[in-house]
Protein backbone atom coordinates (compact mmCIF):
# COMPACT_ATOMS: atom_id res chain seq x y z
CA UNK A 1 0.00 0.00 0.00
CA UNK A 2 1.45 3.34 -1.04
CA UNK A 3 2.48 5.55 1.86
CA UNK A 4 0.41 8.55 3.01
CA UNK A 5 1.77 10.63 5.90
CA UNK A 6 -1.47 11.60 7.63
CA UNK A 7 -0.72 13.46 10.88
CA UNK A 8 -4.24 12.84 12.20
CA UNK A 9 -7.32 10.93 11.06
CA UNK A 10 -9.39 13.94 10.01
CA UNK A 11 -8.92 16.24 7.04
CA UNK A 12 -10.90 18.75 5.00
CA UNK A 13 -12.73 18.65 1.68
CA UNK A 14 -13.17 22.13 0.19
CA UNK A 15 -14.40 23.38 -3.17
CA UNK A 16 -12.14 26.41 -3.49
CA UNK A 17 -12.45 27.10 -7.23
CA UNK A 18 -13.95 30.57 -6.69
CA UNK A 19 -11.13 31.66 -4.39
CA UNK A 20 -7.86 33.26 -5.56
CA UNK A 21 -5.13 30.66 -5.23
CA UNK A 22 -3.06 32.76 -2.82
CA UNK A 23 -6.07 32.94 -0.47
CA UNK A 24 -6.57 29.18 -0.80
CA UNK A 25 -2.95 28.54 0.16
CA UNK A 26 -3.21 30.90 3.14
CA UNK A 27 -6.26 29.02 4.41
CA UNK A 28 -4.53 25.70 3.80
CA UNK A 29 -1.78 26.83 6.19
CA UNK A 30 -4.34 27.53 8.90
CA UNK A 31 -6.11 24.23 8.20
CA UNK A 32 -2.74 22.54 8.77
CA UNK A 33 -2.11 24.51 11.97
CA UNK A 34 -5.54 23.55 13.31
CA UNK A 35 -4.47 19.91 13.18
CA UNK A 36 -6.35 18.73 10.11
CA UNK A 37 -4.21 16.21 8.27
CA UNK A 38 -5.31 16.70 4.67
CA UNK A 39 -7.01 18.92 2.15
CA UNK A 40 -8.96 17.34 -0.69
CA UNK A 41 -10.76 19.26 -3.45
CA UNK A 42 -12.72 18.52 -6.61
CA UNK A 43 -12.20 19.17 -10.29
CA UNK A 44 -15.24 20.24 -12.26
CA UNK A 45 -14.15 22.94 -14.67
CA UNK A 46 -12.45 25.31 -12.22
CA UNK A 47 -8.79 25.30 -11.23
CA UNK A 48 -6.50 22.76 -12.88
CA UNK A 49 -5.99 20.05 -10.30
CA UNK A 50 -2.24 19.36 -10.52
CA UNK A 51 -1.36 23.06 -10.55
CA UNK A 52 -3.49 23.59 -7.47
CA UNK A 53 -1.89 20.62 -5.73
CA UNK A 54 1.58 22.00 -6.41
CA UNK A 55 0.63 25.36 -4.91
CA UNK A 56 -0.91 23.79 -1.80
CA UNK A 57 1.97 21.38 -1.23
CA UNK A 58 4.55 24.10 -1.70
CA UNK A 59 2.72 26.45 0.66
CA UNK A 60 2.37 24.00 3.57
CA UNK A 61 4.71 21.74 5.52
CA UNK A 62 2.84 18.61 6.61
CA UNK A 63 -0.57 18.80 4.97
CA UNK A 64 -1.50 15.90 2.72
CA UNK A 65 -3.07 17.23 -0.49
CA UNK A 66 -5.50 15.06 -2.43
CA UNK A 67 -7.40 15.42 -5.68
CA UNK A 68 -10.95 14.48 -4.91
CA UNK A 69 -11.17 13.77 -7.76
CA UNK A 70 -9.01 14.41 -10.81
CA UNK A 71 -11.29 13.87 -13.80
CA UNK A 72 -9.75 11.23 -16.06
CA UNK A 73 -11.42 12.88 -19.07
CA UNK A 74 -9.52 16.12 -18.44
CA UNK A 75 -6.06 14.75 -19.30
CA UNK A 76 -4.37 11.67 -20.70
CA UNK A 77 -3.30 8.82 -18.46
CA UNK A 78 0.45 9.43 -19.10
CA UNK A 79 0.00 13.10 -18.17
CA UNK A 80 -1.73 12.14 -14.91
CA UNK A 81 0.96 9.61 -14.05
CA UNK A 82 3.83 11.94 -14.84
CA UNK A 83 2.28 14.79 -12.87
CA UNK A 84 1.56 12.58 -9.89
CA UNK A 85 5.05 11.12 -9.81
CA UNK A 86 6.61 14.58 -9.96
CA UNK A 87 4.50 15.81 -7.04
CA UNK A 88 5.25 12.61 -5.17
CA UNK A 89 8.98 13.10 -5.67
CA UNK A 90 8.85 16.70 -4.46
CA UNK A 91 6.60 15.92 -1.47
CA UNK A 92 6.93 12.24 -0.46
CA UNK A 93 3.89 10.86 1.32
CA UNK A 94 1.95 14.12 1.00
CA UNK A 95 0.22 13.86 -2.38
CA UNK A 96 -2.77 11.59 -3.04
CA UNK A 97 -4.02 11.14 -6.57
CA UNK A 98 -7.77 10.65 -6.45
CA UNK A 99 -9.18 9.68 -9.83
CA UNK A 100 -12.76 9.48 -11.06
CA UNK A 101 -14.81 8.89 -14.18
CA UNK A 102 -16.88 12.02 -13.42
CA UNK A 103 -20.44 12.23 -14.80
CA UNK A 104 -21.94 12.04 -18.27
CA UNK A 105 -23.25 15.66 -18.47
CA UNK A 106 -19.88 17.14 -17.51
CA UNK A 107 -17.82 14.78 -19.66
CA UNK A 108 -19.99 15.16 -22.76
CA UNK A 109 -20.66 18.89 -22.53
CA UNK A 110 -17.53 20.37 -20.92
CA UNK A 111 -14.90 17.95 -22.24
CA UNK A 112 -16.61 16.80 -25.46
CA UNK A 113 -15.85 13.23 -24.46
CA UNK A 114 -17.71 9.94 -24.33
CA UNK A 115 -19.09 8.49 -21.12
CA UNK A 116 -19.69 4.98 -22.39
CA UNK A 117 -18.48 2.06 -20.23
CA UNK A 118 -17.01 4.08 -17.33
CA UNK A 119 -15.66 1.01 -15.51
CA UNK A 120 -13.80 -0.24 -18.59
CA UNK A 121 -12.58 3.32 -19.27
CA UNK A 122 -11.12 3.58 -15.77
CA UNK A 123 -9.54 0.14 -15.97
CA UNK A 124 -7.78 1.01 -19.22
CA UNK A 125 -6.74 4.42 -17.88
CA UNK A 126 -5.04 2.75 -14.90
CA UNK A 127 -3.33 0.21 -17.16
CA UNK A 128 -1.94 3.03 -19.29
CA UNK A 129 -0.71 4.85 -16.17
CA UNK A 130 1.07 1.71 -15.01
CA UNK A 131 2.84 1.47 -18.37
CA UNK A 132 4.53 4.86 -18.00
CA UNK A 133 8.28 4.11 -17.64
CA UNK A 134 10.07 4.79 -14.37
CA UNK A 135 12.40 7.15 -16.22
CA UNK A 136 9.76 9.86 -16.05
CA UNK A 137 10.71 10.29 -12.37
CA UNK A 138 13.31 7.64 -11.51
CA UNK A 139 13.87 8.60 -7.87
CA UNK A 140 10.27 9.34 -6.89
CA UNK A 141 7.91 6.79 -5.32
CA UNK A 142 4.51 6.55 -6.97
CA UNK A 143 2.02 8.41 -4.75
CA UNK A 144 -1.13 6.77 -3.44
CA UNK A 145 -3.86 6.35 -6.03
CA UNK A 146 -7.51 6.32 -4.92
CA UNK A 147 -10.65 5.89 -6.98
CA UNK A 148 -13.97 7.66 -6.59
CA UNK A 149 -15.71 4.35 -5.99
CA UNK A 150 -19.42 4.15 -5.19
CA UNK A 151 -20.60 0.91 -6.77
CA UNK A 152 -19.28 -2.57 -5.96
CA UNK A 153 -17.46 -3.01 -9.28
CA UNK A 154 -15.59 0.29 -9.01
CA UNK A 155 -14.78 -0.49 -5.36
CA UNK A 156 -13.39 -3.84 -6.50
CA UNK A 157 -11.25 -2.07 -9.11
CA UNK A 158 -9.98 0.39 -6.47
CA UNK A 159 -8.66 -2.58 -4.54
CA UNK A 160 -7.15 -4.46 -7.48
CA UNK A 161 -5.69 -1.63 -9.57
CA UNK A 162 -5.31 1.23 -7.07
CA UNK A 163 -4.48 1.84 -3.42
CA UNK A 164 -8.03 2.28 -2.20
CA UNK A 165 -11.19 4.34 -2.46
CA UNK A 166 -12.42 7.89 -1.87
CA UNK A 167 -16.15 7.50 -1.08
CA UNK A 168 -18.26 10.66 -1.34
CA UNK A 169 -21.78 11.24 0.01
CA UNK A 170 -21.95 7.97 1.90
CA UNK A 171 -23.21 6.84 5.29
CA UNK A 172 -20.92 5.19 7.84
CA UNK A 173 -22.62 1.93 6.89
CA UNK A 174 -21.45 2.35 3.31
CA UNK A 175 -17.95 3.16 4.51
CA UNK A 176 -18.06 -0.11 6.46
CA UNK A 177 -19.18 -1.95 3.32
CA UNK A 178 -16.32 -0.42 1.34
CA UNK A 179 -13.83 -1.40 4.04
CA UNK A 180 -15.18 -4.96 4.13
CA UNK A 181 -14.88 -5.28 0.36
CA UNK A 182 -11.36 -3.81 0.21
CA UNK A 183 -9.96 -5.54 3.28
CA UNK A 184 -7.50 -4.05 5.78
CA UNK A 185 -4.61 -3.22 3.45
CA UNK A 186 -6.16 -0.51 1.27
CA UNK A 187 -6.84 3.15 2.01
CA UNK A 188 -10.40 4.41 2.57
CA UNK A 189 -10.76 8.20 2.66
CA UNK A 190 -14.43 9.10 3.19
CA UNK A 191 -15.94 12.53 2.69
CA UNK A 192 -18.44 13.77 5.29
CA UNK A 193 -20.59 16.86 4.74
CA UNK A 194 -21.19 18.93 7.88
CA UNK A 195 -23.53 21.81 8.73
CA UNK A 196 -22.36 23.31 11.99
CA UNK A 197 -25.63 24.74 13.27
CA UNK A 198 -28.08 23.84 16.02
CA UNK A 199 -31.00 25.14 13.96
CA UNK A 200 -32.42 22.13 12.10
CA UNK A 201 -34.10 24.25 9.45
CA UNK A 202 -30.80 25.95 8.63
CA UNK A 203 -28.99 22.62 8.54
CA UNK A 204 -31.57 21.10 6.21
CA UNK A 205 -31.48 24.13 3.92
CA UNK A 206 -27.72 23.85 3.58
CA UNK A 207 -27.91 20.09 3.04
CA UNK A 208 -30.62 20.30 0.38
CA UNK A 209 -28.67 23.02 -1.42
CA UNK A 210 -25.60 20.79 -1.33
CA UNK A 211 -27.48 17.76 -2.63
CA UNK A 212 -29.33 19.63 -5.37
CA UNK A 213 -26.79 18.98 -8.13
CA UNK A 214 -25.81 15.49 -6.98
CA UNK A 215 -29.43 14.34 -6.81
CA UNK A 216 -29.69 14.91 -10.58
CA UNK A 217 -26.70 12.67 -11.37
CA UNK A 218 -27.39 8.94 -11.94
CA UNK A 219 -24.16 7.84 -10.21
CA UNK A 220 -25.22 9.34 -6.90
CA UNK A 221 -28.88 8.44 -7.21
CA UNK A 222 -27.93 4.81 -7.79
CA UNK A 223 -25.44 4.94 -4.91
CA UNK A 224 -28.13 6.16 -2.52
CA UNK A 225 -30.56 3.49 -3.67
CA UNK A 226 -27.90 0.86 -2.99
CA UNK A 227 -27.39 2.37 0.45
CA UNK A 228 -31.02 1.68 1.35
CA UNK A 229 -32.83 4.84 0.35
CA UNK A 230 -35.78 4.78 -2.06
CA UNK A 231 -37.15 6.84 -4.92
CA UNK A 232 -38.92 9.21 -2.52
CA UNK A 233 -35.51 10.11 -1.07
CA UNK A 234 -33.66 10.78 -4.32
CA UNK A 235 -35.87 13.64 -5.48
CA UNK A 236 -34.11 16.84 -6.56
CA UNK A 237 -32.37 18.20 -3.48
CA UNK A 238 -32.98 14.96 -1.59
CA UNK A 239 -35.55 14.16 1.08
CA UNK A 240 -35.04 15.30 4.66
CA UNK A 241 -34.13 11.70 5.52
CA UNK A 242 -31.41 11.64 2.87
CA UNK A 243 -30.18 15.10 3.86
CA UNK A 244 -29.75 14.12 7.51
CA UNK A 245 -28.03 10.86 6.53
CA UNK A 246 -25.54 12.54 4.19
CA UNK A 247 -24.85 15.70 6.21
CA UNK A 248 -23.96 15.81 9.90
CA UNK A 249 -25.94 18.66 11.46
CA UNK A 250 -25.71 20.15 14.95
CA UNK A 251 -23.14 21.51 17.35
CA UNK A 252 -19.46 20.62 17.23
CA UNK A 253 -19.83 17.56 19.46
CA UNK A 254 -22.72 16.18 17.39
CA UNK A 255 -20.81 16.66 14.16
CA UNK A 256 -17.66 15.13 15.67
CA UNK A 257 -19.68 12.07 16.66
CA UNK A 258 -20.60 11.47 13.00
CA UNK A 259 -16.96 11.82 11.99
CA UNK A 260 -16.03 9.26 14.63
CA UNK A 261 -18.76 6.97 13.30
CA UNK A 262 -17.13 7.10 9.86
CA UNK A 263 -13.74 6.31 11.42
CA UNK A 264 -15.21 3.46 13.47
CA UNK A 265 -16.75 2.10 10.26
CA UNK A 266 -13.31 1.68 8.75
CA UNK A 267 -12.24 4.98 7.20
CA UNK A 268 -8.53 5.70 7.53
CA UNK A 269 -9.21 9.39 7.00
CA UNK A 270 -12.45 11.39 7.07
CA UNK A 271 -12.44 14.66 5.15
CA UNK A 272 -15.10 17.06 6.42
CA UNK A 273 -16.82 19.35 3.94
CA UNK A 274 -18.23 22.43 5.66
CA UNK A 275 -21.56 23.54 4.19
CA UNK A 276 -22.60 27.16 4.54
CA UNK A 277 -25.44 29.25 3.16
CA UNK A 278 -23.16 30.12 0.22
CA UNK A 279 -21.29 27.29 -1.53
CA UNK A 280 -18.17 29.48 -1.70
CA UNK A 281 -18.29 30.49 1.98
CA UNK A 282 -15.09 30.45 4.00
CA UNK A 283 -14.91 27.08 5.83
CA UNK A 284 -12.40 28.24 8.44
CA UNK A 285 -14.81 29.58 11.11
CA UNK A 286 -16.54 26.20 11.30
CA UNK A 287 -13.25 24.29 11.11
CA UNK A 288 -11.88 26.33 14.02
CA UNK A 289 -14.95 25.51 16.10
CA UNK A 290 -14.91 21.84 15.15
CA UNK A 291 -11.20 21.14 15.72
CA UNK A 292 -11.31 20.90 19.57
CA UNK A 293 -14.30 18.54 19.44
CA UNK A 294 -12.31 16.30 17.12
CA UNK A 295 -9.31 16.33 19.45
CA UNK A 296 -6.94 17.44 16.70
CA UNK A 297 -3.24 17.96 17.50
CA UNK A 298 -2.81 21.70 16.95
CA UNK A 299 0.65 23.10 16.23
Quick overview of this protein structure:
The protein has 299 residues and is α/β, with parallel strands linked by helices. Helix content is 44%, strand content 15%.
- The total strand number stands at 10
For the record, the CATH architecture stands as Alpha-Beta Barrel
Counted by DSSP, the helix tally is: 12
Taking Cα atoms only, what radius of gyration do you get, to the nearest Å?
18 Å
Low-confidence stretches: none
Percent helix: 40-55%
Question: Termini, distance in Å?
Answer: 28 Å
Explain what this protein looks like in three dimensions.
By secondary structure, the protein is α/β, with parallel strands linked by helices. The protein has one domain (10-294): TIM Barrel (Alpha-Beta Barrel), CATH 3.20.20. 44% of the residues lie in helices and 15% in strands. It is built from twelve helices and ten strands. The protein has helices spanning 21-33, 49-58, 77-90, 104-110, 118-130, 152-160, 172-182, 200-214, 218-226, 240-246, 252-264, 284-294, and strands at 10-13, 38-41, 64-67, 70-71, 95-100, 144-147, 164-165, 187-196, 247-250, 269-274. Strands 1, 2, 3, 4, 5, 6, 7, 8, 9 and 10 form a ten-stranded parallel β-sheet that branches. α7 (172-182) links the parallel β7 and β8 (187-196). α2 (49-58) packs parallel to α3, α3 (77-90) crosses α5 and α11 (252-264) packs across α12 (284-294). It starts with 9 loop residues before the first strand and ends in a 5-residue tail after the last helix. The model has no long low-confidence stretch (mean pLDDT 94).
